[in-house]
Write a structure and sequence with these properties.
The protein is built from 3 helices and no strands. It is mostly helical. It has one domain. Helix 1 packs across helix 2 and helix 2 packs antiparallel against helix 3.
Length: about 90
């Protein structure tokens, strides 16, 4: 499955490993802050906000094929290699 990520996104194995690790890292980070957020803003508002953010993320993911893909280098600007030669 990792090979599919590498070939589909045209990335190195190291970058593919980082990409597949991000959901776990996000889950751990949000899981540790959720109790504090629930105490601060309330459980109901936290759940409603989470559902709204998930819905927005799913909609963006669904229309990503018609927009510029999120993984493309062009979003970061052109990558140019300049060879400096002494004359």
């Amino acid at each position: 499955m990792l090979e599919e990520v590498e070939s589909g996104l045209h990335v190195t194995p190291a970058v593919a490993g980082v990409i597949t690790t991000l959901p776990v890292v996000c889950f751990a980070g949000i899981g540790t802050t959720a109790p504090r957020l629930a105490r601060h803003i309330g459980e109901h508002l936290l759940v409603v906000t989470s559902m709204a953010l998930m819905t927005i993320g799913l909609v963006l993911r669904a229309i990503a094929s018609s927009l510029a893909p999120l993984h493309r280098r062009e979003r970061l600007g052109p990558v140019r290699r300049r060879d400096h030669q002494r004359v």
